[in-house]
Amino acid sequence: GRVPFVSTNDVVTSSFFNAVKGRVMVMTVNVRGRLQGFMDGDAGDYQTVIPYDPDSYKLPDTIRMSITDGPPFSRKTEDGRPPRALPGCCETSTMRWGMLT
Fold first, then answer.
1. For residues 2 and 79, what is the distance between their CA atoms, to the nearest angstrom?
2. Which domain of life is it from (predicted)?
3. What pLDDT, on the 0 to 100 scale, is given for residue 36?
4. Confidence of residue 18 (pLDDT cuts 50, 70, 90)
């Protein structure tokens, strides 16, 4: 793969997203220790979301790359191509999507 390791969460996330087959799937990410100014000991809930399309959730590797390449956190594709554009208003109103927290 393109990453030295994948976590259980990467495998579960990729598997769930592939099972749902959503046009867009969203994963929440804890930003403590990942963004400057947000430390592990800080009180509060500091989360962001990363949207994924089928090319960017196909493999656990691309899930891992999306959170380890640093800010800005963004979708990755297996072959390094830019990810497909996120849907607009009309497609969003009828598409299948899901979220994993």
1. 10
2. Eukaryota
3. 82
4. very high
Query: 60, 62, 33: which is closest to 46 by C-alpha?
Result: 33
Provide the domain count of the chain: 1
C-alpha–C-alpha distance, residues 94 and 92, integer Å? 5
96 exposure class (CB count in 10 Å sphere: 0-12, 13-18, 19+):
exposed
Residue position matching structure tokens 């380890």: 68
Domain that holds residue 50: 8-100
Judge whether 64 lies within some domain.
Answer: yes
User: Which residues, listed in sequence order, are joined to residue 25 by a DSSP beta bridge?
Assistant: 52, 98
Q: Is residue 1 part of a domain?
A: no
Q: What pTM was estimated for this model as a whole?
A: 0.84
